[in-house]
Amino acid sequence: MAVDLIMPKLGLTMEEGTVVRWLVTEGDHVEKGQPVLEVETDKVVVEVEATASGVMGPLLVGEGKTVPITTLLARIYAPGEKVEEETSAEEAPAPRITPLARRMAEKEGVALSSIPAYRSDRRVRAEEVPAALTRRPSDSRRTGQRIFSSPRARLRARELGVDWQGLAGSGPWGRVVEKDVLRAAQAATRPSPTLSPALPVKGEERDVTWETPTTVQRITAERMIASFGSAPHFYLIAEVHADALLDLRARLLPPIERRTGVRLTITDLLVKILATALAKYPRANAFWDEGRIGLNRQVNVGVAVATDAGLVVPVLHQADRKLLAQIASERTQLMEKARAGRLSVDDLSDGTFTLTNLGMFRVDAFQAILNPPQSAILAVGRIVERPAVVGGQLVARPMAVLSLSCDHRVLDGALAAQFLGRVVELIEQPYGLLA
Amino acid sequence: MTVRQLQYREALNEALHEEMARNPSVCVLGEDVGRYGSPFQVTRGLFDKYGEKRVRDTPISEEGFTGIAVGAAMTGLRPVAEILYIDFSTLAMDQIVNQAAKARYMFGGKARVPLVIRTQGGGGRGNAAHHSQSLEMWYVHIPGLIVIQPSTPYDAKGLLKSAIRNDNPVIFIEHKLLYNTTGLVPDEEYLIPIGVADVKRPGDDVTIVATSRMVLFALNAAEELARQGIEAEVIDPRTLKPLDIDTIVRSVEKTGRLVVVNEGHLTGGFTAEVAARVQREAFDWLDAPIMQVATEDVPLPYNGPLELEAIPNEQDIINAVQEVVYRD
Q1: Cross-chain residue pair B283–A151, CB shorter than 8 Å
Q2: Fewer CB under 10 Å: which end of chain B, C or N?
Q3: In B, which residues are within 8 Å of A154 by CB distance?
Q4: Do the beta carbons of residue B208 and residue B317 sit within 8 Å?
């Protein structure tokens, strides 16, 4: 029995999804649970897994197409099972056929589908039938003997050094058009499994092992390019005394652990502090959108997490309204889901600010790339005892370095400094959280 | 500069008034162009102002008065002859094609024929097969003739004035369903050069070249296409011969796609001419076949629905564009 693979509903508000990339092709053997395609909602890109083990049937929705949820994307067949005729969801409406054309085609034994719809109104007319007769023997457009391409596509291919003959054309009869060449040129700038073998290797084999990035890594790469290329970044650095923060954690950890069973972390405290400061500085909780600045009404703090599959940023929604215990227990759940690869679209959606903390590593300070479209991200290094001057005395104090990356289209230095100052103040005097 | 809303017919009428005032050699002749002001009212008021000597009513005799106009032009006047329907110009074909178009060449440049033949064509008014044709390509085919088809009141006035001042025979083709359309026309005098196309709407995704009334259809289609996320560039050549191919090619180099719309018949028509020129001059920039939207190869039916089916409409243009943009 064939099993349907449909456009899944990945979040509460999801109504349609876009097929970003098929990870398998028709005829591939797939295992249940194996990622078979990438789907993009208006928020995130996720992998969709095979719903059964078996052989992939025809892929009914092409890459780049957006379809409503529950639309049939493909069927997975048991080995040896007969593949059913599927009508593609994206097929154009059938051309209208004039009665005379139909009669002539029947008389001449011409398949109606081989007669192109005349002119622009998608009507098959009688005068097209004789032409279809003469076209019949050279129906190489369908047999793939010749690769069709537009002159413009070939011109672009020459300019960009793309081998158009190897491309899958998206025009009629698989014609390679300009868009296909541009896509290929773009794809060539990043290593991808289909293109890497075709990379020119001059002389002997290059001493390189090629790795295919995971979906998460590929998307991270694309987003980082987009972010670093479009958002003018600037950075503010501040050193903070962390003794009060460590003290607060030590005092709150036991009661919270008793109540919720989770251990309060410095990250939880930082999330709470950031959320409190963000509520006061909306420009740090904002985004640039084609000449406008969007101020987010909610404060949703994302926390960057490294997983085996790559970097993910689950989001603590409305963190400014949550108690530390809630933040700690939600964050713990999100970390577990992240490591298991079980984050939902909702878990990953609607972040308005990102915290990235490498404090567990031997990193003193680092600067982060903005998580698009957000206007700011805070990078936190390790907390370690450093010499500090307190009241004219040189003393050892636990310190940390904060680096705030900002989008200069949304924030300027002074405003960003005020926000960072508030964060520093709350870290050094965390009872301010009560105010 | 002040501008007013004028009807296409009023803009043409102003051009005639201004040119007759400017140059006493300019004269008007044709059927009912005098006291009646011509059936489409384009010559209104000329008779009262300039009298019978310069505004002549003629018998129903297209070949006769066209011949008179050609002779008058060769002997020093600047006649503007009106042939009421372009369908009737077939009667004057010898005068236009064999005399007016050839004289300058055959007399080694010594003869000039500063003649304008105003006429109108096009369907959609229920005038049936004898009164609805778009015969512009008959004249585009003939060396020695200039062919102009304005689509707006502004273009109509500026081009008619340029046509009257030109020393060569000009076939100036109006459209019967444009006379009542309105548009902005400046108070001040202006001329529009012959042989220069006008980009009526800029766009990056597809080029639509349209003539005469089809320009209006193309602009409407472009609005609908914009709602679908397709930005069409609409170009009105305004002068069919000499054709401003450069403006069209520049646009196609940008968009990679071309749809040509003309109310003449499909076979051997203006759409074929533009398609041929563009494939030759912009081959490497084409990303899709050139689409032709033209009138069916049938005599125009009198029956209203059939007539509308035969001539291109907005949906035909939209369909043609959609067929070549390959949108996902």
Answers
A1: yes
A2: N
A3: 284
A4: yes
- The amino acid that residue A244 corresponds to is A
Amino acid at B298: V
Q: Using CA atoms, how far apart are residues B116 and B121, in angstroms rounded to an integer?
A: 16
User: Distance between CA atoms of B153 and A285, rounded to whole angstroms?
Assistant: 54
Per-residue three-class SS string for B173-207: EEECCCCCCEEEEECCCCCCCCCCCEEEECCCCEE
The lowest-confidence range among A53-67, A381-395, B8-22, B218-232 is A53-67
Contact at CB, A120 and B286, closer than 8 angstroms: no
pLDDT at A173 over 80: no
Instruction: Report the relative pairing of strands A29-30 and A54-56 from DSSP bridges.
Output: antiparallel
Largest CA distance in chain B: 65
Task: Enumerate the H helices of chain B as residue ranges.
Answer: 8-22, 46-54, 62-74, 93, 101-106, 136-140, 153-165, 213-227, 245-255, 270-281, 304-310, 314-325
Distance of CA A164 to the CA centre of its chain: 27
Q: Position of tokens 């002001």? A: B37
Q: What whole-number distance in Å separates Cα of residue A102 and Cα of residue B170?
A: 47
Q: How far is CA A18 from CA A37, A50, A131, A172, in A?
A: 10, 17, 39, 22
pLDDT at A201: 46
Both structure tokens of A370: 């903005």
pLDDT in tens, B143-194: 999 999 999 999 999 999 999 999 999 999 999 999 999 999 999 999 999 9
C-alpha dist (Å) from residue A297 to A273, A383, B304: 17, 32, 59
**At how many degrees (to 10) do helices B270-281 and B245-255 cross?**
60
* Residue corresponding to tokens 């500090």: A388
Catalytic-role residue among B62, B263, B307, B314:
B62
| Minimal-distance CA residue of chain A relative to B328 | A65
Cβ contact, residue pair A178, B256, below 8 Å: yes
Q: Scan for tokens 């009262």, then name that residue.
A: B48
What backbone torsions phi and psi does residue B39 show, to the nearest 5 degrees? Answer: -55, -30
Taking CA–CA distances from B319, the nearest residue in chain A reads: A120
Amino acid at A38: E
ipTM: 0.70
Instruction: Give the other-Cβ count within 10 Å of A27's Cβ.
Output: 11
pLDDT in tens, B43-52: 999 999 999 9
Nearest-angstrom CA–CA distance, B30 and B51: 14
Q: Which residue has the tokens 């094609």?
A: B97
